[in-house]
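User: Let's play a game. I give you a shape written as tokens, and you guess the letters that built it. Ready? Here's round one.
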């Protein structure tokens, strides 16, 4: 049909339940806390809420280790709370999507508890079991694959005298998608159970890792001298991915209408992305492409470096260009629960420029084509934790493993530990998982109890309550930008022919894109500089009439002040 998909122009907001809002003062955010803020999200202009895992879980990886798809983690609330959240979200005219984590379960999921018992039970083949490799009479993992969170990707289970595969922590065994019965059980429990309750779709976790190269060859040595090696070529976009996603679409999703499926697609280049998201394939509605958020990262956290602005422009162009001549759809995002804060990583968190920079990033994001995702706290300009925080302030298993990996390999050497902490301060996942700063009272109004993770030192200066009162706050600017995106939907959400005009410029990012039908052009300037910068007005647009659409400053000049952004509407089609 010609009716556009509802999820294309909907602004999405990601909630990380543990750190969002605590309603009963046990120090942990919860579903009633979320419900209490729905009017706030509605008022901000949010159309869709993505709720990170709230399923029952031993919380080895903050709920990405699910022990029961059909139950709620008790500290987050009850199934009644969840039903109420679904209803109230819909009553306010918003949509709700959940996290779909089906590459692996928790080792405490009943399927795995059964599976590990012996080699003959009903669930014996539901996970990826392999015999040990015997080297010099010693038991070894079946191959040298490295877990994404460090160490071997295999864990020994004496009950079966076998190893099972875990791409993440040992408590996250990988499901065996090769088994059709397992796939059917996954669809039923993880997907249909929730679609029956009326949710509107899923953000699909590790959406391209289900299919492994089942001969399980050793990976080549890329981490010099280490026992376990990155093996992504054997499990990212594996041989049967597309077959299974099409099965999932036909057997399950098509029964429920326009279900929004946004896949997380790490380690995948543009050509490969298209196989998942072309409107013909319909495997996913769109995906999170990692070109931008992976900038400056390496295989270890402390390999992080500050990218140059041209690399950032190029990564954004690459994503926007997925639309060129295709029927695909894309997402726009700079933050999620796995990333450092965007202000710190891509702009600046210096005191004097932070507000301007946060508004500039809002202009940038709201000007890009695709479904826009913002992450809790981004709307008030939260930024990374201070450099003086120590390892005892961090909670994330990925961060703790990264730290101990450095500590073990360098025998506790102080300089190495400093380096490890520096990496985590820049890209550690806890940065995004600090409590939302609701007001300037104790613990930032997140909880009346003791928060499960340290509150950012800055909460008295950066919080929702103060920003709601201040018309020129970052929060009110975001609200204005989200509204502008709606008012100019054709151009801002659906515009095409993205073009960068100052590719080599290290200080300013200038781009244009075109309205799908009217001939209008959007021209955007974003400063990434602590200094005043000249405007680079594209020559071919010089003779046309322009109208200022939005600016981050009250009185825009002929030049850009530090971290300023503005957008113009160019009325006529530029003469070629
Ligand atoms: O992340 C998948 C992923 O590829 C991660 O390894 C990511 O690169 C990493 O978090 C960076 O440190 C998803 C979830 O988003 C993440 O939170 C989970 O921990 C992971 O899957 C396992 O479910
Ligand atoms: Ca609570």
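Assistant: Ready! My guess for every position:
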């Amino acid at each position: 049909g010609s009716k556009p998909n509802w999820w294309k122009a909907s602004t999405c907001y990601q909630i990380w339940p543990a750190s969002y809002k605590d309603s009963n003062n046990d120090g942990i955010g919860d579903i009633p806390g979320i419900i209490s803020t729905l009017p706030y999200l509605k008022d901000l202009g949010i159309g869709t809420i993505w709720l990170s895992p709230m399923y029952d879980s031993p919380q080895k990886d903050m709920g990405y280790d699910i022990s029961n798809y059909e139950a709620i983690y008790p500290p987050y609330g009850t199934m009644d709370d969840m039903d109420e959240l679904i209803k109230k979200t819909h009553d306010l005219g918003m949509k709700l999507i959940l996290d779909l984590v089906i590459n692996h379960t928790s080792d405490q999921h009943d399927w795995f508890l059964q599976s590990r018992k012996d080699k003959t039970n009903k669930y014996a083949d539901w996970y990826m079991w392999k015999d040990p490799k015997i080297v010099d009479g010693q038991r070894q993992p079946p191959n040298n694959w490295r877990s994404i969170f460090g160490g071997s990707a295999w864990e020994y289970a004496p009950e079966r005298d076998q190893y099972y595969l875990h791409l993440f922590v040992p408590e996250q065994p990988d499901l065996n998608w090769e088994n059709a019965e397992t796939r059917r059980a996954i669809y039923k429990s993880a997907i249909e159970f929730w679609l029956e309750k009326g949710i509107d779709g899923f953000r699909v976790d590790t959406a391209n890792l289900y299919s492994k190269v089942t001969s399980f060859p050793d990976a080549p040595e890329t981490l010099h001298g280490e026992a376990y090696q990155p093996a992504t070529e054997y499990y990212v976009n594996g041989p049967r991915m597309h077959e299974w996603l099409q099965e999932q679409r036909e057997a399950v999703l098509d029964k429920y209408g326009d279900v929004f499926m946004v896949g997380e697609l790490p380690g995948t280049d543009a050509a490969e992305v298209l196989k998942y998201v072309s409107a013909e394939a319909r495997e996913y509605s769109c995906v999170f492409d990692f070109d931008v958020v992976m900038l400056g990262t390496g295989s270890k956290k402390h390999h992080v470096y500050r990218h140059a602005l041209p690399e950032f422009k190029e990564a954004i162009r690459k994503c926007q260009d997925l639309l060129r001549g295709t029927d695909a759809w894309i997402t726009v995002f700079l933050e999620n629960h796995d990333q450092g804060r965007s202000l710190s990583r891509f702009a600046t968190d210096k005191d004097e420029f932070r507000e301007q920079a946060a508004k500039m990033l809002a202009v940038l994001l709201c000007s890009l084509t695709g479904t826009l995702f913002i992450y809790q706290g981004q709307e008030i300009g939260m930024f990374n934790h201070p450099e003086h925080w120590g390892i005892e302030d961090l909670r994330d298993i990925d961060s703790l493993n990264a730290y101990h990996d450095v500590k073990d390999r360098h025998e506790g050497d102080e300089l190495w530990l400093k380096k490890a902490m520096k990496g985590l301060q820049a890209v550690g996942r806890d940065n995004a998982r600090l409590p939302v700063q609701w007001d300037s009272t104790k613990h930032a109004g997140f909880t009346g109890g003791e928060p499960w993770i340290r509150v950012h030192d800055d909460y008295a200066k950066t919080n929702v309550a103060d920003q709601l009162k201040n018309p020129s706050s970052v929060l009110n600017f975001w609200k204005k930008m989200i509204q502008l995106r709606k008012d100019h939907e054709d151009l801002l959400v659906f515009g095409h022919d993205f073009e960068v005009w100052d590719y080599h410029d290290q200080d300013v990012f200038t781009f244009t894109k075109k309205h799908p039908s009217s001939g209008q052009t959007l021209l955007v300037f974003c400063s990434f500089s602590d200094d005043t910068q000249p405007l680079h007005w594209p020559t071919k647009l010089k003779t046309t009439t322009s109208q200022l659409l939005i600016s981050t400053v009250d009185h825009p000049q002929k030049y850009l002040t530090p971290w300023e952004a503005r957008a113009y509407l160019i009325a006529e089609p530029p003469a070629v």
